[in-house]
Design goal:
The complex is a heterodimer. By secondary structure, chain A is of the alpha/beta class. Chain A has 5 helices and 11 strands, in the order βαββαβαββββαβββα. Chain A has one domain: Rossmann fold, CATH 3.40.50. Helix content of chain A is 23%, strand content 25%. Chain B is built from 2 helices and 3 strands, in the order E-H-E-H-E. Classes of the chains: A alpha/beta, B alpha+beta.
Chain lengths: 224, 83
């Protein structure tokens, strides 16, 4: 059975089509979920895509976390459903309390639009299960507020529980401990600043993100 | 009663402040030698209707905690006076 991935559309999202295209390109089914609907019924995984949800007013994700759909996402995640937040989606998930920490303005205050190398640090998550530890993936980044920060206690917990799933090979934004992506305790919610959905087709310069999207599709299939 | 409220959102101590650092680094070039400890935050002003000052303060504190600040990196200083 084909896994169906729901991609949430907030006013100001701008990567939802890329995410749906990547899912379909890799054999999954994709559908848009409107932020104002209080349900994610009928999907096997959820992507919170990149962009500027609600204009990023106040703080990225600060208003989006109160969108009706986020209650449903929290319930879906609590029931074990796979949820991935990419870029602005990562910011939304931290604001919603589904992932720890916060994303601050980049060190150096530059908007970064480039391709970076990511090292896979843990394969025990819905986004990395089909990769291998130590794999280096070339994936684009496109953000101003991607500087992951958290308390020392939270950082210790993330390390001890093997919840840092991706690290930058060459830290572009000042993130603590070179963190590019983390997962929750149950390992079914992952947030990352880079955009794997934009690296799933050789026409786009890299297919290295495909292994991540394929991992999500595989988690979604077991959740069908 | 109506209160004018000023909420200053600040980065918590120990959280890197790239905007403050950038401003501070530029000061010597501009001839400002005696200025240090620059930090950048946000000022949010609004009015609050409540029975009395302590009720207003409780409401504003709740607002700050749940919405106006991200407690992981920010805290808030609240100033209020009768409108």
């Amino acid at each position: 059975m084909t896994a169906k991935v729901g991609v949430i559309l907030f006013p100001g999202s701008n990567c939802e089509q890329d995410a749906m295209e990547a899912v379909r390109h890799l054999g999954g089914d994709a559908e848009l979920l409107w932020h104002g609907d209080d349900t994610v019924a009928g999907v096997d995984a959820v992507i919170v895509p990149g962009g500027f949800a609600h204009g990023d007013y106040l703080r990225p994700g600060a208003i989006a976390r109160f969108s009706p759909v986020m209650q449903a996402v929290a319930k879906f995640a609590a029931d074990g459903g796979p949820v991935v937040g990419i870029c602005n989606g990562f910011q939304v998930l931290t604001e919603a309390g589904l992932l720890p920490g916060a994303l601050q303005k980049n060190r150096g205050l530059k908007f970064l639009c480039t391709t970076v190398e990511l090292r896979v640090e843990s394969t025990s998550s819905v986004l990395t299960s089909e990769a291998r530890i130590g794999d280096v993936l070339r994936v684009p980044i496109n953000h101003f507020e991607g500087n992951f920060t958290c308390s020392d206690e939270t950082l210790d917990t993330l390390r001890v529980e093997d919840r840092i799933v991706l690290r930058y090979v060459d830290n572009p934004n000042g993130s603590v401990d070179d963190i590019a992506g983390i997962c929750n305790e149950a390992r079914n919610v992952v947030g990352l600043m880079p955009h794997p959905e934009r690296a799933c087709n050789p026409l786009l310069g890299s297919e290295d993100g495909a292994v991540l999207v394929r991992s999500l599709l595989s988690a979604a299939r077991t959740n069908v | 009663m109506r209160f004018s409220v000023l909420v200053e959102v600040r980065l918590r101590p120990g959280i890197a402040d790239p905007q403050g650092t950038t401003i501070e680094r530029s000061l010597p070039h501009l001839g400002f030698d005696g200025i240090s400890a620059v930090s950048v935050g946000k000022a949010i002003r609004f009015t609050c209707e409540a029975d009395d000052e302590s009720a207003a303060r409780a409401e504003v504190e709740d607002l700050c905690k749940r919405f106006l600040t991200n407690p992981v990196i920010e805290d808030a200083a609240i100033t209020m006076e009768k409108a």
